[in-house]
Amino acid sequence: MKDKVTIHTLKRLKQSGQKICMVTAYDATFARILDEGGADVLLVGDSLGMVIQGQDSTLPVTMDQMVYHSAAVSRGAKRAHVVGDMPFMSYQVSPQEAVRNAGRLVSEGNVGSVKLEGGAEFADTVRAIVRASIPVMGHLGLTPQSVHKMGGYVVQGRDEDAARRMLDDALALEAAGAYAMVLEGVPLELARTITQSLKIPTIGIGAGKHCDGQVLVCYDLLGMNPDFKPKFVKRFANLHGNITEAANTFFDEVRAGTFPDEDHSFKATKGIRLVTPTPVVPDAEVAVEGAEKVGGIYGAPV
Ligand code: KIV
């Protein structure tokens, strides 16, 4: 196994000019595939509220849900650094609550760091979490938890005043101890200025090519939802099409009676003769010497 990625690896990647590759993951299977595919960072994003739960926003996502998904992703990740998102209202009330909740993501979700949205107003919170030895990734620009304040999911920092405020926010978060920063929905010129002004890496989503790394929601880059096509998303696969085709073929074969065929069925051991009707008992399969192995269930390897 290649060396585990840490927050120090990410800093070195910025210094050497190598781009950081981050992607969201919400379960162990996707985490394993994306980790083996070369992700440096797996983000357990609160975007799971939308892509997993089908909510309209990230606001309903809870701490318990983030802990649950973080633990699943951490089990699947071997090399990548795993970041757990702090959900809405898990860090806004007080730095003490923020530390407690960040601690849950580390101790129960097994993540290597946490991410929270917001600028200089959260500098004390970032400082408190970092003081508890939990690394923090910042998140500026289009911050989805502030959807009501922003009046929608709109690009931020387009005029000079807003751009200046975002640069100040970035510097304040870095000074508070953040080890990296997501820039979301930001003009590429501003993202370049922020990236050049910080020693810590920036990771962009809808923020242009000058950031130190890039992140996308895995379901978006894999083309799972044909109805969602914002400007910043590039589809690198068409899994919606592939899944639909595979499912249709399965349904066709079931309806035609061609699945399961002999290759996918078990045979009785020689000599078994049922002389009386046997009551149906769940788990009545008996291990018979020489019997075929069933294999894993639900794709788990044995
Ligand atoms: O929740 C999320 O997936 C995120 C990324 C889009 C940066 O915050």
UniProtKB/TrEMBL annotation:
One of its GO terms (biological process) is pantothenate biosynthetic process. Its main location: cytoplasm. The active site is at 184 (proton acceptor). Its EC number is 2.1.2.11. Its cofactor is Mg(2+). It catalyses: (6R)-5,10-methylene-5,6,7,8-tetrahydrofolate + 3-methyl-2-oxobutanoate + H2O = 2-dehydropantoate + (6S)-5,6,7,8-tetrahydrofolate. Keywords: Cytoplasm, Magnesium, Metal-binding, Methyltransferase, Pantothenate biosynthesis, Transferase. InterPro entries: Pantoate_hydroxy_MeTrfase (IPR003700), Pyrv/PenolPyrv_kinase-like_dom (IPR015813), Pyrv_kinase-like_dom_sf (IPR040442). The keyword Transcription does not apply. GO terms for cellular component: cytoplasm. Mg(2+) binds at residues 46, 85, 117. It comes from the Bacteria. Gene3D superfamilies: Phosphoenolpyruvate-binding domains (3.20.20.60). Pathway: Cofactor biosynthesis; (R)-pantothenate biosynthesis; (R)-pantoate from 3-methyl-2-oxobutanoate: step 1/2. Belongs to the PanB family. PANTHER family: 3-METHYL-2-OXOBUTANOATE HYDROXYMETHYLTRANSFERASE. Catalyzes the reversible reaction in which hydroxymethyl group from 5,10-methylenetetrahydrofolate is transferred onto alpha-ketoisovalerate to form ketopantoate. HAMAP family: PanB. NCBIfam families: panB, PRK00311.1. This is 3-methyl-2-oxobutanoate hydroxymethyltransferase. It comes from Corallococcus exercitus.
